[in-house]
Amino acid sequence: MTETFDFETTDDGFLGSALRLLQPRLGFRAGSDAVFLAATLTARPGARVLDAGAGTGIVALAAAHRLDTIRIEGLDIDADLVALARENALRNGLADRVGFSAGDLLDPPAADATFDHVLSNPPFHDPAQSPPAADARRARARHGGDLGGWIAACLAHLGPGGELRLILPAARLGAALAAFGAATGRTVVFLLRSRAGRDAKRIILCTTKGARAPLRLAAGLDLHDAGRAYTARAEAVLRHGAVLDLDDDAA
């Protein structure tokens, strides 16, 4: 039975409408950032994955849609969004492999789980540089806590050799690397540029807990061509669910 909500929702298509998600009409809404992040995940069969700050579930559901042998758990502090995410898992036939629960990543329950991978599109805006939105749900999603504390909590959920993947504004790169500290290595910085020749506004970071290999700056991805249409590589990810290989140096 379809659940009803006390706020207005929209029915939005992702991955060329292979996924259909309910989202609040007002407030923070998932977009291409979430799809690009999900597209980076590679995982062995049976791997356990955490989507930290899951919102309405697009990162977890997009990853599970492509990788049918993994189990994903989503965690979000907003109980209304968790209810939407559960409904979205049911609507897309993924509830047997993707579950969502309400809770605070920064204050997890005592019986905490260890994961092979953590994915997160975190509340990354610096309140000193960007004032919070008037809408409370949108403000929490964008300014929901200290980035360093968020990253530390994500790393705490990983076992040795586990991977953390984040999507962030390029301006937050320094804060993220400082939070990784000596706890991780084999870090990849992957640039997302609006067009060739432009500065990257978004970055995807992948780092491995306990690794010692040096940081690598990948070539990244140009999202649009000169005519402002999506490039073939971006289109493949956004519309067709292709993998976004962080080790591929073709821009």
Summarize the structure.
The chain is α/β, with parallel strands linked by helices and 251 residues long. The chain has helices at 32-39, 58-66, 79-91, 136-142, 147-156, 173-180, 232-240; strands spanning 9-14, 19-24, 48-52, 71-76, 98-102, 115-120, 158-169, 184-195, 200-209, 216-217, 221-224. It has one domain (32-240): Vaccinia Virus protein VP39 (Rossmann fold, 3-Layer(aba) Sandwich).
Can you describe what's shown?
The protein is α/β, with parallel strands linked by helices. Helices cover 25% and strands 29% of the residues. The protein is built from seven helices and eleven strands. The strands form two sheets. Strands 3, 4, 5, 6, 7, 8, 9, 10 and 11 form a nine-stranded mixed β-sheet that branches. Helix 1 packs parallel to helix 2. It is globular. The termini are far apart. About 4% of the residues have low confidence.
Offer a few descriptive terms.
Rossmann fold, alpha/beta, 25% helix, two-stranded antiparallel ribbon, globular, 9-stranded mixed β-sheet
Give the arrangement of secondary structure elements:
Elements: E1 9-14, E2 19-24, H1 32-39, E3 48-52, H2 58-66, E4 71-76, H3 79-91, E5 98-102, E6 115-120, H4 136-142, H5 147-156, E7 158-169, H6 173-180, E8 184-195, E9 200-209, E10 216-217, E11 221-224, H7 232-240
Helix pairs in contact: 1-2, 5-6
Spell out the CATH superfamily: Vaccinia Virus protein VP39
Structure annotation, total helices: 7
Please state the overall shape, judged from the principal axes of the Cα atoms. Answer: globular
Structural class: alpha/beta
Radius of gyration over C-alpha positions, nearest whole angstrom: 17 Å
Would you tell me which CATH topology applies? Rossmann fold
Give the tally of β-strands.
11
Distance between the termini: 45 Å
Query: Strand share of the residues?
Result: 25-35%
- Subunit organisation of the chains: single chain
Q: What series of H and E elements makes up the topology?
A: EEHEHEHEEHHEHEEEEH
Helicity, in percent?
A: 25-40%
- Please identify the top-level CATH class: Alpha Beta
